[in-house]
Write a structure and sequence with these properties.
disordered C terminus, mainly alpha, single chain
Length: 198
């Protein structure tokens, strides 16, 4: 549908912008994410309040309280610039997820009696996630390297989705509009018979 193609187009542009900022630095990337997240939360909260205002009952409360919290959190994301907290969260999340993958790999082999290949795959994924998380917190310059790599991946992914969405929009606009055929009900049909005069 056209609306989904438009949404995909917008998200692709945002992905490319975030990817470009990550290529500059980790700080710039997370700053951009904080701003985008803040703007989205503010828009969601504001649109919700507007929708409640023009509803039939014209009631803003109590749903407006939740929407106002969204707006407040969006302002906080923009003002406080939460990039450092997100960075630390990602590093520790990778460590915990890596340990969980390794633990689950051993459970899969010894407890669930799955093939040895599942143990190897799970252990490799877990070890890689754990190593990346530890390197992010301990190795100088590793975060910038990951930031550039992540930026390139996001740019390529966003560009691919952008091309797909543009093709979808062009093909949709080139299609002729389908005429909606109206079916007449049998009971509404009246056949008039005229007398034929000789």
């Amino acid at each position: 549908m056209k609306s989904s193609a438009i949404i995909k187009f917008i998200s692709s542009v945002i992905t490319i912008i975030v990817g470009v900022t990550f290529c500059f630095s980790v700080r710039a990337g997370f700053t951009t994410i904080s701003i985008i997240m803040g703007v989205v939360l503010i828009l969601l909260g504001a649109l919700g309040v507007i929708a409640d205002t023009f509803a039939e009952n014209h009631e803003i409360l109590p749903s407006g309280i939740g929407r106002s919290i969204l707006i407040a959190y969006g302002i906080l994301c923009i003002e406080m610039n939460l990039q450092s907290y997100v960075y630390y969260f990602i590093a520790y999340a990778l460590m915990v997820i890596g340990g969980l993958y390794i633990f689950d790999a051993f459970l899969a082999f010894f407890a669930r009696k799955e093939p040895f290949s599942m143990l190897v795959i799970g252990a490799v994924i877990g070890a890689a996630s754990l190593a990346v998380g530890i390197c992010l917190r301990t190795v100088n310059g590793f975060a910038e390297f990951c930031s550039v790599a992540l930026g390139i991946v996001l740019i390529v992914y966003g560009a691919f989705n952008l091309v797909v969405s543009v093709i979808a929009l062009v093909s949709y606009s080139g299609q002729p509009k389908k005429e909606i055929a109206t079916e007449e009900k049998d009971e509404d049909r009246e056949v008039k018979v005229e007398d034929v005069k000789e």
